[in-house]
Amino acid sequence: MGSVRALILAAGYGTRLKPLTDRLPKPLLPVADRPVIEYLLWDLEALPEVTGILVVSNARFHDQFAAWLGKRPRGKKPLRLLNDGSTADENRRGAIGDVQFVLESLDDSEPDHLLVVAGDHIFEIDFRSFVSAFRDRDATTIGLERETDPRELRLCGVVELDASGRVVNFEEKPTYPRTEILSPPIYLYHRRDLPRLAEYLAEGHNPDAPGHFIEWLHLSSPVYGHFIGGRRHDIGNLESYRRADAHFRARKAGPATA
Fold first, then answer.
1. Regarding beta strands 181-183 and 140-146, do their DSSP bridges make them parallel or antiparallel, or are they unpaired?
2. What does the pLDDT read at residue 108?
3. What secondary structure, in 3-state letters, does the chain show?
4. How far apart are the first and last CA of the chain?
5. CB 170 within 8 A of CB 218
6. Is the confidence at residue 258, as pLDDT, over 60?
7. Is the pLDDT of residue 257 over 50?
8. Over pLDDT 70: what percentage of the chain?
9. Contact between 226 and 165 (Cβ < 8 Å)
């Protein structure tokens, strides 16, 4: 299958969590006294296929990430922090733009597969099962969940699958969802699809929500879905942040997959 590099997208500005995010980015907000990003790192560092972890921040919060990283004990895998240069929500690159920025910064002649997760989420899932599904398919694989609330479906990418689990339709934030299958922000891009990101952006497509790229990619390259199970915490607003904090405090601040 080859090696995998993990990328945590952490260059957002947390506009829905102000004033908490005026001076601190969402991935560094404490949940049960542990930064959100540490829950992700616990899982990613445990994956044998992952050879290194990348975190992409913006220029506004880069110093805060650097300070966090400087105090953090050395982890199991190499960890590299990148600054995408944006300074405000108005000039941010967007999630897809940040993935491409990272790829250009690496300048790999033989790129690894790339596992991309949103830095404002905590996943209580089996990451090993997700990587195993990718290995079996040997194709770009996206995480899936079942959701019956149309309001939630309209805020996410909505997916249709064939009998083999291949994505046959993907619509980002649909007005009228066609299924009850949504795509949370966890993607494992096959190395052969990584050059397509530059093509996608060059055509002028939306650089923001990662689902837009999958919506475009699945039309010309195989993309499969894997139901991730477990629980997902989207630290999107003050209410969801408080819920996550209460949940993990009730678990005595144990690691997300402990």
1. antiparallel
2. 67
3. CCCEEEEEECCCCCHHHCCCCCCCCHHHCEECCEEHHHHHHHHHHCCCCEEEEEEEECCCCHHHHHHHHHHCCCCCCCEEEEECCCCCHHHCCCHHHHHHHHHHHHCCCCCCEEEEEECCEEEECCHHHHHHHHHHHCCEEEEEEECCCHHHHCCCEEEEECCCCEEEEEEECCCCCCCCEEECCEEEECHHHCHHHHHHHHCCCCCCCCHHHHHHHCCCCCEEEEECCCEEEECCCHHHHHHHHHHHHHCCCCCCCC
4. 27
5. yes
6. no
7. no
8. 95
9. yes
pLDDT at 254 over 60: no
Greater confidence, 20 or 125?
Answer: 125
Least confident residue range of 85-89, 117-121, 145-149, 218-222: 85-89
Whether residue 256 has pLDDT greater than 70: no
Domains of the chain: 4-250 (3.90.550.10)
Residue 108: both structure tokens together? 């790999």
pLDDT of residue 74: 86
Cis peptide before 30 (omega within 30 of 0): no
Residues found in the chain: 258
Any bridge partners for residue 30, and if so which?
35
